[in-house]
């Protein structure tokens, strides 16, 4: 069976980095017999420029009929003045909601070759391997009512709503427990239950479902403490599960522990293993078009795609090994460069991964 992959490169550095990931997919198809078919479509600011919508109907249709979506990044300064409903980010949020990608997996893994690239001391981060499980289709990002209203006294007031139903908490909780079962069997649920009723319920539901996973140790942490612990002693964590907005913030923080946000992939999964795969970093408009962006997070997103949607564990491991091998060779893009290494651009990094993929006897 041929799997269809929708390729949505997006804005900024999106097209450059996705081009490298597509090269890797091409090698898997031509040299390793992976049965895939790729189809591209615009999303985000570029989609707005050509069609007036950040998530045009044909793009959404393609994403829905595909088995998986590979996404670059969206956004840029030229679209910041648009109404919020037309901004590039809405394209991304629309995909998440329409495809019901409620479970967002954001691993923070430190490649030992990059221990010196972290701003934290090497011994604090050496061996780091955290999986952040972020709820992605609910919470304050999507809660109603929302908007800006004018009060009786004429003053304007902005408002958003943090809402989670028990079933939404339960499904993300189960997602986290299932993942923990394949790892070190520890889940830390992050909330603000001391202040927010919504996350008091979150904590209660996590406790309830934990009963079904007796081998997994569940702990709870307030989000402010979790942020502190992530920089103080990050290796205490195995799986962290949290709300949409807390996950947004903590995953950037966790990413930086690994030296560069340019290294980290992510998977956003629906209940049926369909998924959207993208680097954690954004569209980096400041370096777009310069050929210096790090394509490794996007290439590693392809590895996640193989793991979680196509169930091609061996090919996924091959990509991860190839990435590790190019780091062993001392090849670095600017974001992960340290003294004594060889600085290369986006394209050369993609080529290096391809070469190492082909030469790996497996
Ligand atoms: C992320 C991004 C998005 C988010 C933006 C671009 C809407 O920061 O994927 O973490 O806030 O979810
Ligand atoms: Mg974010």
Task: Record keyword descriptors for this entry.
362 residues, alpha/beta, Isopropylmalate Dehydrogenase, two-stranded antiparallel sheet, 14 strands, globular, binds 3-isopropylmalic acid, binds magnesium ion
Order of strands, widest sheet: 2-1-3-12-11-4-5-10-8-9
CATH architectural arrangement of the largest domain = 3-Layer(aba) Sandwich
Q: What is the total domain count?
A: 2
Tell me, rounded to a whole number, the average pLDDT: 96
Structural class, judged by helices and strands?
alpha/beta
Euclidean distance between termini CA atoms: 24 Å
Structure description:
With 362 residues, this protein is α/β, with parallel strands linked by helices. It has two domains: 1-102 and 270-362, Isopropylmalate Dehydrogenase (3-Layer(aba) Sandwich); 103-264, Isopropylmalate Dehydrogenase (3-Layer(aba) Sandwich). 41% of the residues lie in helices and 20% in strands. The protein is built from twelve helices and 14 strands. It has helices at 14-32, 45-51, 57-65, 88-98, 122-125, 166-181, 197-210, 223-232, 244-257, 296-308, 313-328, 346-359; strands at residues 3-10, 36-40, 68-73, 103-109, 129-135, 147-150, 156-159, 186-191, 217-222, 239-242, 265-269, 275-279, 331-332, 342-343. The protein has a ten-stranded mixed beta sheet with strand order 2-1-3-12-11-4-5-10-8-9, sandwiched between helices. A two-stranded antiparallel ribbon has the order 6-7. Helix 1 (14-32) links the parallel strand 1 (3-10) and strand 2. Helix 1 packs parallel to helix 12, helix 6 crosses helix 7 and helix 10 (296-308) packs antiparallel against helix 11. The longest helix is centred in the N-terminal third of the chain and has 19 residues, at 14-32. The model has no long low-confidence stretch (mean pLDDT 96). The chain binds 3-isopropylmalic acid (IPM) and magnesium ion. The site of magnesium ion has 2 residues, from helix 9.
């Amino acid at each position: 069976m041929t799997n269809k992959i929708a390729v949505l490169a997006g804005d900024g550095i999106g097209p450059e980095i996705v081009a490298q990931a597509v090269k890797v997919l091409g090698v898997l198809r031509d040299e390793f017999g992976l049965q895939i078919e790729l189809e591209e479509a615009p999303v985000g600011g570029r989609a707005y420029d050509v069609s007036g919508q950040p998530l045009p109907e044909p793009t959404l249709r393609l994403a829905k009929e595909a088995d998986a979506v590979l996404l670059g990044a969206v956004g840029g300064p030229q679209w910041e003045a648009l109404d919020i409903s037309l901004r590039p980010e809405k394209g991304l949020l629309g995909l998440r909601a329409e495809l019901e990608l409620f479970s967002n997996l954001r691993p923070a893994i430190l490649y030992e070759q990059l221990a010196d690239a972290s701003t934290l001391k090497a011994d604090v981060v050496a061996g780091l391997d955290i999986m952040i499980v972020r709820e992605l289709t609910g919470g304050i990002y999507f809660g109603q009512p929302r908007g800006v209203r004018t009060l009786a006294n004429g003053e304007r007031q902005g408002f958003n709503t943090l809402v989670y139903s028990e079933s939404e908490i339960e499904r993300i909780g189960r997602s986290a427990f299932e993942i923990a079962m394949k790892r070190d069997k520890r889940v830390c649920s992050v909330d603000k239950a001391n202040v927010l009723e919504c996350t008091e319920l979150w904590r209660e539901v996590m406790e309830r479902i934990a009963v079904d996973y007796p081998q997994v140790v569940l702990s709870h942490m307030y989000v402010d403490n979790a942020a502190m612990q992530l920089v103080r002693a990050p290796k205490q964590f195995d799986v962290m599960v949290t709300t949409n907005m807390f996950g947004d913030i903590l995953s950037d923080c966790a990413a930086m522990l690994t030296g560069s946000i340019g290294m980290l992939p992510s998977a956003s999964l629906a209940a049926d293993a369909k998924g959207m795969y993208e680097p954690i970093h954004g569209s980096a408009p400041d370096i777009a078009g310069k050929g210096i962006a790090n394509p490794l997070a996007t290439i590693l997103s392809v590895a996640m795609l193989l793991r979680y949607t196509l169930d091609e564990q061996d090919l996924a491991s091959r990509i991860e090994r190839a990435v590790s091998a190019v780091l062993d060779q001392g090849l670095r893009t600017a974001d992960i460069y340290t003294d004594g290494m060889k600085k290369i651009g986006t394209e050369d990094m993609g080529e290096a991964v391809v070469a190492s993929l082909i030469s790996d006897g497996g």
